[in-house]
Design brief:
The complex is a heterodimer of chains A (about 375) and B (about 375).
Chain A lengths: L1 E7 L10 H15 L6 E5 L2 E5 L6 H8 L7 E9 L2 H11 L3 E10 L8 H15 L2 E4 L6 E7 L4 E5 L3 E2 L11 E5 L5 H11 L3 E8 L6 H18 L3 E6 L1 H10 L5 H20 L4 E2 L12 H8 L7 E2 L7 H11 L2 H4 L21 H8 L4 H9 L3 E4 L1
Parallel strand pairs in A: 5-6, 5-7, 10-11, 10-13, 11-12, 13-14
Antiparallel strand pairs in A: 1-3, 1-4, 2-3, 4-8, 4-9, 7-8, 12-15
Chain B lengths: L1 E2 L10 H7 L1 H4 L10 H19 L7 E6 L2 H12 L3 E6 L4 H12 L2 E6 L9 H7 L4 E5 L13 H11 L4 E5 L17 E5 L10 E6 L24 H16 L1 H18 L5 E3 L9 E6 L4 H10 L2 E2 L1 E2 L7 H4 L2 H5 L4 H5 L1 E5 L6 H22 L1
Parallel strand pairs in B: 1-11, 3-4, 3-5, 5-6, 6-7
Antiparallel strand pairs in B: 2-8, 7-8, 9-10, 10-13, 12-13
The chains are: A alpha/beta (about 375), B alpha/beta (about 375).
């Protein structure tokens, strides 16, 4: 008797002719997630089976697979000979000793002497005879024992299944560039888009020497967590120090944030086009802070010329975002008290509803093109 | 590179490293082993213990416990000595003592914090006012690690014992050992030191304590360090400490005098339009603390870093105001703006006059530059 992991992928079935393409990418993502562990992967009948691994690795494999998008659910199963007594031995290991249950059998091998219903009935009876506190409930059981009789003379027996991350395999929906800060929101936004199958790369703006190395390291840590879900990720960093200094020296102090964000979006779009990303992704949520009013968004959006800006959190409350950040494992990193953007230059009262006409007037005081080109000279790339 | 953050750690003493090398490569045995090779190392430990102790205390009255660092030594004495009632310390302690005193509150001991003078030394009169018949422990830092202020711990210990002779008096000597002259008076019960502040390695410290003082077991195990602090001894680190201390104490007075001049010189060269003095005149020559007016220390630190000058600071780019300012600098009576601009420049006997001159000019230029950019 040995362990096998059964992987079920839900939404992929919807994709008809593209199924093979999706399955191949999905299998590759599984391989990436399980790097360093030995096993063999078999695709069969709309499922993926992992076998030939060390039983001790099973738990860690399941943990790692929980982060793979496109995975609907999975079970650790026992593989045995297909006679009833072997099936019963394995079923005892996956069956709980009390509660309500049912047995669900599936017969891939139609030559097998018993029908699925007969197998289920007989195995159910055998389990009831050893676990006296069990009760059968075929409609709303508290757990199910699954039996899969296969054509090669073996059977798979499994108990509870573990829920996967759902969504679509990363890499099936193009590539986007996430504007990542050290805050709570942007990693969540990246996670949500990656869940829909998009490969996410990250761009971070810093203001060294006004901010410190820990702040940058924090973003590296956040991107590392995110890369656990989104596959291989690049983190790009660009310094906006000199841009902040120039705005500080030449423009109205209450326009600092508005103007700075327009620079960030311009740089982001140019960089996205250079690396082949098809959209920008931000963690903006409507009205959360001054720059995220609809006027603020209009102001920054209006400098993005070619690409869509995806804002998956736009209708979320802070608490909803926090819940997701906790779940994906970035919250504790995000709340570390390092500033990711310098507060030295921040005004006491930022313009909450800046008018485009005023913004343009302030921006005229700056060498926008020169500053952007200069910012690109500070570009660094970290690969995960 | 100019390294002026020697209060954080010092470059390990190369001669000490090579002398102690045999304890890594040849004499690597466990000192608790019963064969000759192991037993011989007991003698090496004894030698280290005795010479490290004798530089600052009477070996007939005091003994030495090896620890993993100064922080551990502080923890060992504070949690070993504080009893129900109250424990008194200063507002100018290193976190190793400060955080431990805050924890005492959870263990049924009332912590009391004595205020500081402007230079960071403790206000002795106020400290003594906090000591009463219910005080079980008093801990006063010897040399303040942020401002360099020196507390006269022997005199303070005497005065404390005059009020309540049952008090256990401890001092954190991490920034003092091997740097400022001291001979522990009999009223001092315990003293913490660290190897890496004087050319030793990180991972080795010591707790000097009066022999008659009974402390509970701090780490249970094989019974090393008189049963108080079990764990196989870090013999290599201990021998490096011994040899480094030998060198430091041999030149302690000469270094002290020379660094006092450098410290004066550095302060003299700093532009008074840009910097104010935080350290007092009578502080340790090893630390000069200044504040850059209206600027943030950490930004200057980064700018200095880019010019190859490594310094310390009293502030951090933290979005949490509570963590931003040094509690010690605020306790000296400085406002938040001053606290924000604090730079700590700390020396070692290896510091040269040329470095001091270069550092002053670099600091003047970056502070000037940042002032301009912020205008």
């Amino acid at each position: 008797m040995r362990k096998v992991i059964i992987i079920r992928y839900g939404e992929l079935f919807l994709k008809g002719k593209n199924r093979n393409y999706f399955e191949t990418i999905f299998a590759n993502n599984i391989k990436t997630a399980l790097e360093g562990i030995e096993y063999t992967l078999v695709k069969r009948g709309g499922r993926i089976y992992l076998r030939d691994f060390d039983d001790m690795d099973a738990e860690e494999m399941v943990e790692r697979l929980k982060k793979v998008f496109g995975l609907h659910s999975m079970s650790v199963a026992f593989e045995t000979a297909n006679d009833m007594s072997s099936i019963f031995e394995a079923a005892k290991l996956v069956c709980k000793e009390e509660g309500t249950f049912k047995v669900e059998a599936h017969r891939g091998d139609k030559r097998y002497p018993k029908t699925s219903v007969e197998v289920a009935k007989e195995l159910g009876g055998m389990l009831l005879s050893v676990y006296r506190k069990l009760k059968v409930d075929v409609h709303t059981p508290s757990f199910t024992v699954g039996v899969d009789i296969r054509e090669d003379g073996t059977a798979l027996i499994f108990g509870e299944s573990t829920e996967g991350a759902g969504g679509m395999p990363v890499g099936t929906a193009g590539k986007g560039l996430l504007l990542i800060s050290g805050g709570i929101d942007s990693p969540v936004a990246g996670h949500m888009i990656a869940k829909r199958g998009m490969r996410v790369e990250c761009l971070h703006f810093h203001s060294y020497p006004y901010t410190n190395m820990q702040a940058k390291e924090k973003v590296v840590d956040l991107a590392t967590v995110l890369s656990g879900y989104s596959g291989v990720t690049q983190l790009y960093t660009v310094s906006v120090t000199h841009i902040q200094e120039e705005i500080h020296a030449k423009c109205r102090p209450d326009f600092m944030i508005t103007l700075l964000r327009r620079f960030m979006y311009r740089i982001a779009e140019r960089h996205a086009l250079r690396i082949g990303a098809q959209c920008l992704i931000t963690g903006e949520s409507l009205g959360q802070v001054a720059s995220q009013t609809i006027e603020g968004m209009t102001s920054s959006n209006s400098v993005v010329e070619k690409l869509p800006v995806l804002r998956p959190l736009v209708g979320f409350d802070k608490n909803e975002i926090i819940d997701r950040a906790v779940k994906m494992g970035t919250y504790d990193i995000s709340i570390l008290p390092y500033e990711d953007c310098c507060t030295v230059f921040l005004p006491d009262f930022p313009a909450i509803r800046p008018k485009l006409k005023d913004i343009l007037a302030e921006e005229k005081k700056l060498d926008v093109e020169g500053l952007i080109e200069e910012a690109f000279t500070t570009l660094e790339k970290i690969t995960f | 590179m100019i390294y002026l953050d020697n209060a954080a750690t010092t470059k390990p003493c190369e001669r000490a490293l090579s002398r102690a090398g045999e304890f890594l490569t040849e004499n690597y045995f466990n000192p608790s082993a019963m064969y000759r090779e192991g037993f011989a190392l007991q003698g090496e430990l004894k030698k280290a213990r005795s010479s490290l102790l004798s530089y600052v205390a009477d070996p007939t009255a005091f003994e030495w416990i090896f620890t993993s660092c100064g922080t551990e030594a502080d923890n060992q004495i504070i949690f070993g000595a504080a009893r129900r009632g109250n424990a008194v310390t200063t507002a100018g302690e290193h976190s190793a003592v400060h955080a431990s005193f805050l924890e005492l509150r959870n263990r049924g001991v009332e912590p009391r914090f004595a205020p500081l003078n402007r230079d960071g030394s403790v206000n002795v009169e106020e400290l003594l006012r906090l000591v009463d018949e219910k005080t079980t422990l008093v801990s006063v830092i010897h040399v303040n690690n942020e401002t360099g202020a020196v507390n006269d711990i022997n005199a303070i210990a005497k005065a404390v014992k005059a009020i309540n002779p049952r008090v256990l008096f401890h001092s954190d000597g991490v920034q003092a050992y091997g740097k400022v002259p001291i001979r522990l008076a009999k009223e001092v019960d315990a003293y913490s030191v660290s190897a890496h502040k004087i050319g030793g390695l990180k991972g080795v410290g010591g707790l000097i304590k009066r022999k008659t003082l009974q402390l509970p077991v701090f780490i249970y195990g094989g019974g090393q360090e008189g049963g108080k602090r079990s764990g196989t001894e870090n013999l290599f680190g201990i021998k490096v400490f011994e040899y480094a201390a030998e060198e430091k104490f041999a030149t302690l007075k000469a270094d002290y005098a020379r660094l006092r001049e450098y410290r004066e010189q550095l302060w003299g060269l700093l532009d008074k339009e840009l910097f104010v003095l935080i350290s007092g005149q009578n502080g340790t020559p090893y630390i000069l603390s200044v504040s850059a007016k209206g600027l943030r220390g950490e930004i200057l630190l980064h700018m200095a870093n880019d010019q190859g000058l490594l310094i310390g600071t009293g502030s951090a780019c933290s979005s949490n105001a509570k963590n931003r300012y040094s509690r010690v600098i605020l306790a000296c009576g400085h406002d938040e703006k001053t606290a924000d601009g604090v730079l700590r420049l700390s020396f070692s006997p290896a510091t040269t006059e040329e470095e001091v001159v270069k550092a002053a000019s670099a600091l003047n230029s970056i502070a000037r530059e940042l002032t301009k950019r912020m205008a």
